Amino acid sequence: MNCEIQEKCGGCAYGKIPYAQQLKTKTEYVEKQLQKLTQKVKVNYCIGMENPYNYRNKGKYAFKNGKMGFFEEGTHKIVYAKCAIQNEKINQVADYIFELVKKYHISIYNEDSGKGFLRHIVIRYGFYTDEIMVIFVTTDGKMYKKQEIVKDLTTKFKEIKSIIQNINVRETNAILGNKSFKMYGSDFIMDKLGELKIKISPLSFYQVNPVQMKKLYDTAIDFAKLTGNEVVYDLYSGIGTISLSVASKAKKVYGIEIVKDAVIDARANARMNNITNASFMDGKVEELLPKLCNKEKADVVFVDPPRSGLDAKTIKTILKVKPKKVVYISCNPDTLADNLMLLEKDYDIKVVQPVDMFPFTRTRWVCCGAISKINPVILEFTMKEKIFKNSSKNKIRAKNSKFKDVLVKFMFNLEYGNICKY
């Protein structure tokens, strides 16, 4: 990778490592983490990208001391160069916004004094629709030269469909605040996931690598082996990408998500795609899951938790209701391994499939996904075969045996972890 600031930025600290070696190292890292388990788990080779450049559909930029760019690793110093892993259109829009900030003398926020207006810029890009959303993250107040900035941006970039002002007055590392106001166009942009149309709002979570996201979800659905008769839970469902992807292959899908805006988008995405067998609930998974289990028990559960992993109450509920299959998508293999140590008492874990989601980057976290499954259908078939061949005495023994003759697979969505330090 040719980037003049990669050693300072830290985002692509492994840009000088050949891509094939990155995939090898990521695979080995996953293998190491899963050695905590009692079961011996096979890890397949990490699925990479044909072109591991310009894959990111979201760019985030900070402002400080008249500069725009990225924070140097471990500091709040600004460094900038055209990003080799962000979509080129995002780079172009970012450069032009910085010109406008200087042209119209927009006040830059000073984190030491707490004065100033403009804090960050976030640019979201619809990879398959070419639609762009620009988010100005500011302190409280009206945007100076708003009309001029909107006109200049939308004249130069016809792809811009949404311009948002987001208010963040908190003294935290969080970029976005909770209040957003539309400056231009709609309050969302569109993208596609396979045949699905997807609505993306300013605060909605959406995978930043759309190419690998499709591979990840396709693999997850393939591992689940849905027949069309299953009730499916999608925990931490976001804007409904997994729920809506499996809806055509399931009897009913229930999504649970804590972010209200994401739930609103998920419901809108379902309506837009004429999907009627998926419903979404707004609230904490650990609180809503037990209630949902009492309403209608799941055959298959997809989980995509935050980096902290599944909480104890959710794991307890899963072990209590014992769904036939559990598909685990995680952004931290450390907590994934800890969770699986609890789940492996009731589930077989046999195959792991890493999927590289963030080529060249290095953070401490690794995004991963997994399927863990105990399948009564296979169990029933095995038992019937044994019953047919054995006596009635052995038939009783077979019914009371705990067979685990199942195939279990995992997916790992890797945000290249700080592997070289382990």
List keywords for this structure.
alpha/beta, disordered C terminus, 7-stranded mixed β-sheet, globular
Radius of gyration, whole Å? 24 Å
Counting DSSP H or I runs of 4 or more residues, the number of helices is 12
The pLDDT mean sits at 84
Whole-Å distance between the termini?
Answer: 24 Å
Low-confidence stretches: 363-422
> Describe the biggest sheet?
9 strands, mixed
Helix content: 25-40%
Helix-strand makeup class: alpha/beta
- Report the count of strand segments: 18
Q: Topology as H/E string?
A: HHEEEEHEEHEEEEHEHEHEHEHEHEEHHE
Please write out the topology.
Elements: H1 6-9, H2 19-33, E1 42-43, E2 58-64, E3 67-71, E4 78-79, H3 88-103, E5 118-125, E6 132-138, H4 146-156, E7 160-167, E8 179-185, E9 189-193, E10 196-200, H5 210-224, E11 231-235, H6 241-246, E12 252-257, H7 260-272, E13 278-282, H8 285-295, E14 300-303, H9 312-321, E15 325-330, H10 333-343, E16 351-356, E17 368-373, H11 376-389, H12 392-400, E18 409-414
Parallel strand pairs: 1-16, 6-7, 11-12, 11-14, 12-13, 14-15, 16-18
Antiparallel strand pairs: 2-3, 2-5, 3-4, 5-6, 7-8, 9-10, 15-17, 17-18
Structure write-up:
The protein is of the alpha/beta class and 422 residues long. Helix content is 32%, strand content 24%. It contains 12 helices and 18 strands. Helix 8 runs parallel beside helix 9 and helix 11 (376-389) runs antiparallel to helix 12 (392-400).
